[in-house]
Amino acid sequence: MKKILVVDDSASIRHVVSIALRGAGYEVIDACDGKDALSKLNGDKINLIISDVNMPNMDGISFLKEVKKHPRYKFTPVIMLTTEAGRDKMEEGRMAGAKAWVVKPFQPPQMLDAVAKLCLP
Predict the structure, then answer these.
(1) Considering only CA atoms, which of 66, 110, 13 is closest in space to residue 101?
(2) Which of 11, 44, 47, 117 has its Cβ near the most Cβ atoms within 10 Å?
(3) Structurally, how many domains does the chain consist of?
C-alpha cells in the first residue's frame, strides 16, 4: 500500500484529505506542521508528501527544503496544498522541489488525480 504524509495545521483539512486518500486505497500519516512531519520521517518509504504552506513552527517551504536534504526522501514528490495562489510563492515552492500546487478550497477528485500522477511506485 502506498504511504502518503499529509502536513497541515488545520485538523479539518487533514481529516478531509485523509478520508479522500484512504478511500482511494492509500495509507496516511498526518502531521500538524513541518517540525512534526520531519519527526515522522523515520526512514520508512513515503510515496508522496502533501503539505500546506502557511503553518506555525515550520512552514511548508522550509519543511520541503529540509525533506530534500534527506537522502531517503530527496526524490519523494511533494504536492503543496494551500490557500497561497501567488506566483512568487508558487515559484518559491517549485524551486524548493514542489511537484504540484493545489489551491484550497480543492475538490478531492482534483487532488486524487494529482496524487495518482505523482505517487512513486
Answers:
(1) 110
(2) 47
(3) 1
